[in-house]
Amino acid sequence: MPLRQLIASLALAIGLTNSISAADNRLDVAQIISKSDASDILGEPVKDPSPRSGEGADGYYSKCNYYSMRRGKSLVIRLQLPGPNAIAPDKELQLVAAANGSTENVPGVGDVAQMFATGGDSGAASRVLMLYVVKGGAFITIGVSGFANDAVALEKAKTVAQKLVDHL
Question: What does residue 151 show for φ and ψ, rounded to 5 degrees?
Fold first, then answer.
């Protein structure tokens, strides 16, 4: 094979490898937090999820919802890697905090994290806890519902968030 063809083939192979590597960096949250993991987190069997990942106008996203077989518990997972024209993750977190008004800082996960809980009086099983995490260029949202104790729900959300952060 002439040198020119060899160089062209090598350049093509390197380009394809880089394209494959870039695609591999796109996390699929359903592959990181499996149905079995969700069952363990919620403490009971869950229905089959309908995960979705892809590129959108605002960048790359991956999401998956897990719902318990018996009504009442759920785990909602969202990951966004904003595109060049999207809101930066730290700005997105500021907007979420402003919209909710009563967020609390959560140390120990990501670069910065905040949470809020809503849905009835403390101790009501219908409460929803939302954890928002910024890590590098990623914005992660974890929602956990069906736990009467916010501290338990927060630990579960932090566990999920940390697994995602570990893959970034």
Answer: -65, -40
